[in-house]
Amino acid sequence: MISTGVSGLDEMLGNGIPRGRKVLYSLEPGVDGQLFMISSLSCALAKGHSCLVILPNTTVDAFHSDAVSKCGAKLDTKLKNVAFLDSVDRERIQKSAKTTAAQKREWQARVQKICREREVDTIFAYFDLLYEDFGLEGALDILATAQHERNATLILEHLNLEGPPLLSRFIQEQEFDLVIAIRSSSRPIPHFNYFTILHCSWSSLPSRSVPFVISGNQIVPYVPKIVVTGPAHSGKSTFVANASDEGRSVDRAGPDGDPTTVALDYGWLRWKDFEITLYGTPGHARFDPLIPPALNHAMGVVLVIDATKPDTLPRAQSLIELITKKKIPYVIAANRRDLPGVMTPGEIRAQLQIPAKIPVYPISAKVRQDVHRVLESLVDYITQYPV
User: Rounded to an integer, what distance in angstroms lies between the CA atom of residue 67 and that of residue 62?
Assistant: First the structure.
């Protein structure tokens, strides 16, 4: 198996990429996704794989400088187990071979020679200029013979200017085993980058898009902000506290003597390879001016209700109106499932008049497993994108 070097992605793929597969990292214009290829190359070199790197667009020295700036000391392109064909080679081929067919044969000869002499097991190719020079099928022909002779793994990076039709060609016509699209969100706020596993031949993965940030020269799956809201005394602060690795709450005694949040609860957790920040809002209507600013830049909302108090549902419904105006994904956590007189999810759904696609989860906010089940549902909701 070959590691992608991307946090969480190997686990999704079943511990990495099996040998001999064809992999495409497809970048949308403007997205910061070059670290995917470099991370995979870094892992292959660190594990002693014999690698050929094809970069017709730049020199080895320029690539090394750029790679080190992105990946730090983890990437060493001076190792003996790596060979390069770079822009200097491309220029020489274009000067010596006057026709496209002759240039293609020269590329094939050079790739095959290196793969044979160095017993290459992993080929990394920056595909843009090969595609421009020879077209999709011609460029892949250059790599195919060497790949099949050695059962080598082929990993491409390509800037996709043609959209979904080109990705379909890679999957359907060229039978790529793994296609990962690296994209930017269409939402102006919050704006984020994400990767989508469009196709994986060795695993029946669900279609999931995963937001990410680049932190410490690593790609980190990341859901920046989730808001936890609901009527007063529904269990929001308990939910945030039990979900979080770190957090704080600002409470004071309410008119009935019970603690009530007067500012935003705050929590942070690393969960299932995601970095998540939680913000809990006060529940009383007098604090409603705080809620729209809290919803700004939120990627999802957990609405916590007390399932033993049907009289609080009108308040919950007013909060749903605030959330839906912002067009933010939300799920409902029906708290205090362990107490008598609890409403069923069907009763809650009917009274709140919410669509069938909105999940309603009976939980106890004191039980960490229940809380994480709700977060898992919301993260899935956030990260589902039509392909």
Answer: 9
Q: Is the pLDDT of residue 125 over 90?
A: yes
| Collapsed DSSP state (helix, strand, coil) of residue 87 | helix
Any domain includes 77? yes
Q: Is residue 387, in this structure, part of any structural domain at all?
A: no
265, containing H or E segment: strand 265-271
pTM: 0.74
CB 378 within 8 A of CB 350: no
Of 205, 236, 252, which closes a domain?
A: 205
Host domain of residue 358: 223-382
Same domain, 190 and 276: no
pLDDT tens track for 270-285: 766 677 888 888 888 8
Where would I find the H helices in the chain? 9-13, 35-46, 60-71, 87-96, 100-118, 128-150, 164-168, 236-243, 291-295, 313-325, 345-352, 368-382
Query: Which of 143, 2, 157, 153 minimizes the C-alpha distance to 70?
Result: 157
How would you class 330 by CB atoms within 10 Å of its CB: exposed for 0-12, middle for 13-18, buried for 19 or more? buried
Domain with residue 193: its CATH number is 3.40.50.300
Buried/exposed code over 249-272 (b: 16+ C-beta within 10 A; e: otherwise): beeeeeeeeeebbeebbbbebeee
State the total domains in the chain. Answer: 2
The residue length of the chain stands at: 387
pLDDT tens for residues 59-105? 999 998 888 777 665 666 667 899 999 999 999 999 999 899 999 99
